[in-house]
Amino acid sequence: MRVMVFAMATENGEKGLEPTPEMLEAWEAMDKFTEELVNAGVMVAGAGLKPTAEGKRIVCDGPRRTVIDGPFAEGREIVAGFSIWEVKDMDEAVAWAKRSPNVMAGASVMEIRPFYEAADLADFVTPEELATPREGERGRLGVA
Question: 3-state DSSP call for residue 11?
């Protein structure tokens, strides 16, 4: 099963503050943890995201599109980074997540969400549609 692990932003992370020595130490621990995930065959991909001050939001309302410049409010609802893991089940994903170092000063939140897999879409999409990739895609709807 594939899951996406979201690291949620913190107020300090959104401010783009210079890292403290403790944070640098935590990042070193995160590098080691990521290496464990890779060596265990769990880590598929991952990246950190710059603060929302450097981002844009596109609001879609019918045919209209409105562009909103960052920064965005509600830091606890903002994704600061992500990882894609290949795990046996949600219990394994939670076990790995509980081992993750906290690289933020203070409390932080991670969210784990499973991807839709082919079996989840069987009532809506044929196996042939799922298996036929469009240019630049793994398969229709990006499922494995």
Answer: helix
d(CA 88, CA 139): 22
Q: Tell me, rounded to whole angstroms, the distance of Cα 55 from its chain centroid.
A: 16
The Cβ of residue 86 has, within 10 Å, a number of other Cβ atoms equal to 17
How far apart CA 20 and CA 5 sit, in angstroms, is 25
Six-digit token string for 136: 């630049």
Q: How far apart, in whole angstroms, are the C-alpha atoms of residue 79 and residue 131?
A: 31
Show the tokens assigned to 52. Answer: 């929302």
The pLDDT tens digits of the residues spanning 84-120 come to 999 999 999 999 999 998 887 778 889 999 998 878 8
Question: What CA–CA distances, in Å, run from 59 to 53, 78, 104?
Answer: 17, 16, 29
Neighbours of 104 (CB within 10 A): 18
CA separation for the pair 51, 33 (Å, rounded): 23
